[in-house]
Amino acid sequence: MPAxxxxxxxxxxxxxxxxxxxxxxxxxxNEADLDFLVGKTVVEVRGDQVVFEAGTEPxxxxxxxxxxxxxxxxxxxxPLSLPDLVGRSVASASAKxxxxxxxxxxxxxxxxxxxxxYEAWQVExxxxxxxxxxxxxxxxxxxxxxxxxxxxxxRERDAATAEALDKLLQQYHLPPPVGFQPSERKQGRxxxxxxxx
Length: 197
Description:
alpha+beta
C-alpha cells in the first residue's frame, strides 16, 4: 500500500484506502487484470519488492510486493531467489483467487499464494495508477486510476461514503483524517455536551 495509508473494509460499501490526499473506494473481487505488467522487465529487487519501474522517488513507480515467501522457479522447476528475477521480462501475469502468478519470457515463474492471516502480496503503480492488494484469506482489493476524493469534499460529493467512513473510524477507534469534518449529527452532540459545562 502507498506509504502513510490505511486500508479499511466495509461489507456494504467496499474497501476504503485512506491516504493523505483523500479517500478512494475500491472493489472486492476474486480476479484482477494484470495485463499492464506484460512486457515489463524486473529492474531490481528491494527486499520483498520486485521492481519494474524504479523512478526517481524513494518508492518505486511500479512494483509487486510479496510479503509471504513466493515460490520462484526456472523453466525446469529449479528454485530461484527473488534477485534471480532481475533482467527477466513478464510474458503473462495473473491474480486469481488470491494467487499471484508471473510467467517470464524465459519460462521462469513467480507464484505467491494467499495467506489466511496476512496480506500476502500487492501490485502498485503504473500509468494509469493501480493498486491491487491480496487481503487475508485471498480476496483482492482493487483500486484504479480514479483520484482520491479530498476529505474536505467527501460529505458533499458522496454522503453515503462519508457516513460509512464515519462508522469505520468509530468501529476501529481511529481519529478522523485531517480535513474530514465530523457529521452534523456528531457536531450537534458535541455542541450540546460543551454547552452543559
